[in-house]
Structures are given as structure tokens and as C-alpha cells.
Write a structure and sequence with these properties.
The structure is a single chain. This protein is of the alpha/beta class and 286 residues long. Helix content is 43%, strand content 13%. The protein has helices at 18-29, 41-55, 71-82, 108-136, 157-177, 198-201, 204-212, 222-233, 260-267, and strands spanning 9-13, 33-38, 61-65, 90-93, 139-144, 182-189, 244-247. Helix 4 packs parallel to helix 5. The relative contact order is 0.14.
């Protein structure tokens, strides 16, 4: 543990588990006051207790129930995170979701839900964190992207589009907010062992394909991502903004994964029936 972030207040959305929880842990271990946000209070309460036990100081850990697609809720979460020190210095826009299926069978509701959570939720987090940081005269924002933002993931079009949009949004935010002393960056994880990734990890065909596309052939851990976020949030990266740091075992050097078997297993053959096999055009009489 260190003190590089002592006197700094942080908000971590989706902080009750997985990558968000690891981010909170790394920030706390270096002295920050951290507020974790999410939709489930029971999960947040349990995470707060675990984090407090890890650092031995419950006074620096807080939580707030927040739906990141609700602007009033996000604004309130930022106020809660800033309250312990009277200012907000760090924001981690981690909360996200995803859906699968072929483009031809994706409903408008599926499309809107994914973009609302992953892209609009990030926009609202950055907007209100940025307003608070402008008052403080400085700050660091880190958003969680995905390798799906830069390499295709068949049968995951809404998720890919949302993460590609997130990366460009962060670049524009860095350009706009730099004059206020606010930095904005992103981390681009590959496949990481989290609850959200369980369907991918549990499918041996998909998991093997991920391994085949990574020069460092191992699945990532939340701690891998938390360490990168901590660096981008802290003083060590004070001259870094508008960047997206890939933490993916080298996956983006190759192609995106084939997740067809997982989608079919989870959602049934109808979810993939309108999609040709990789590299094999499927004839149709339509």
C-alpha cells in the first residue's frame, strides 16, 4: 500500500464486482477515498465490507445505488463521491452490459439497451464527473472499453458499436476537458474472468479461440485491469490523456473471437440462423 492517492476522492461505477471492484481496491490501497456505485445495494454493501477489510479503514469506502442511464442518479452519485473531501478527483466509468445475436435478428430494444448502458452511461458519468472536477481544477477520468471496440466480434454488433463509440467519446472528452486540468483515458480489456464474461469462459470452443488469438495465451484477471486503471488515475500518468491502453494479452494484434457456439447455446439456433459461418457465405432464397 502507498499514499500516492491520499487526499483524492474517486467514483467507480459498476464497482460492486469484477473489474470495478478491482479498480476500487487498487485506488484504495494507494490512499484514495472511493465510492462504488451500482444498481444492487446488497452487492454494494458486501463489496464495501470486503474493501474496508482489505485496507483496514472503513472510513475511506463508500457506496451509492445508481442506475448510470438515469442522469439524476449519476449526478447524485458524483455528489456522494465528492462529499468526503469536498471535491472529486477520479472517476472510473466501468459499468456496462452486452447482448448477442446476429444483426438480422437483433431487436431495436436490444440495440438501444446496450448503447444506453455502455455509451450513454459513460457520457453521463463523464459529464457530471467533469463538472465536479472543473470546480476542483483537475481530475482523471478512466473509462472501460473492450477489444470489441476495435476488432470485430461476430454476433455482438451492439456491444462492438457501443465500445467503439466510447473510445471516440473519450478522445473528444480529453480534447475538451484538458483546459480544465482534466484528463480522460480508457482501458481496453481482452477476455477477463468476471461474472459478465462467464458465458464466454464456460464455452470451451470460444475459450480456446480466445487463447489462439492472444500471443500471451492466458485469460486476464480483474487485477490486471485494476492496476492499469490505477496508473491512469494517478500522478504517474499526469501527461497522458486521450489514450486507450490495451490490456489484452496481445489479442488486438490478431482477429476478434468467434462466439457462435456460445450464442447458440445461450439463445438457441434462431439467434445465429441469419448469420453465415466465419468465412463461408450462406446462400439464401430470400
Amino acid at each position: 500500500m502507498g499514499d500516492a492517492l491520499q487526499g483524492r476522492a474517486a467514483l467507480v461505477t459498476g464497482g460492486g464486482s469484477g473489474i470495478g471492484l478491482a479498480c476500487a481496491q487498487h485506488l484504495l490501497r494507494d490512499g484514495a477515498h472511493v465510492t462504488i456505485a451500482g444498481r444492487g445495494e446488497d452487492r454494494l454493501r458486501s463489496a464495501k465490507e470486503a474493501l474496508a477489510q482489505d485496507i483496514g479503514d472503513p472510513s475511506r469506502v463508500h457506496y451509492v445505488v445508481c442506475d448510470i442511464t438515469n442522469e439524476d442518479a449519476v449526478a447524485a452519485a458524483v455528489q456522494t463521491a465528492a462529499a468526503p473531501l469536498g471535491a472529486l478527483h477520479i472517476a472510473v466509468a466501468n459499468a456496462g452490459s452486452g447482448m448477442g445475436g446476429s444483426i438480422l435478428s437483433t431487436t431495436l430494444e436490444m440495440w438501444r439497451f446496450t448503447l444506453d448502458v455502455n455509451l450513454t452511461g459513460t457520457f453521463l458519468t463523464v459529464k457530471h464527473a467533469g463538472l465536479a472536477m472543473r470546480k476542483a481544477g483537475e481530475g482523471s477520468i478512466v473509462a472501460i472499453s473492450s477489444i470489441a471496440g476495435v476488432i470485430t466480434h461476430r454476433l455482438m454488433a451492439p456491444y462492438c458499436a457501443s465500445k467503439a463509440g466510447l473510445e471516440m467519446f473519450i478522445k473528444v472528452a480529453a480534447d475538451e476537458l484538458g483546459g480544465f486540468g482534466i484528463r480522460a483515458n480508457a482501458v481496453r480489456p481482452g477476455l477477463v474472468e468476471t461474472e459478465l464474461a462467464t458465458p464466454l469462459l464456460d464455452d470451451p470452443v470460444v475459450r480456446d479461440d480466445y487463447h489462439d488469438q492472444m500471443p500471451l495465451s492466458r485469460i486476464g484477471t480483474p487485477d490486471d485491469i485494476g492496476a492499469a486503471v490505477r496508473w491512469l488515475a494517478g500522478p504517474e500518468s499526469s501527461w497522458v490523456t486521450g489514450q486507450c491502453l490495451a490490456i489484452d494479452g496481445g489479442h488486438t494484434l490478431r482477429r476478434g473471437p468467434y462466439v457462435d457456439s456460445m450464442i447458440e447455446r445461450m439463445l438457441g439456433p434462431d439467434a445465429v440462423k441469419d448469420n453465415a459461418a466465419p468465412g463461408k457465405p450462406r446462400p439464401t432464397s430470400d
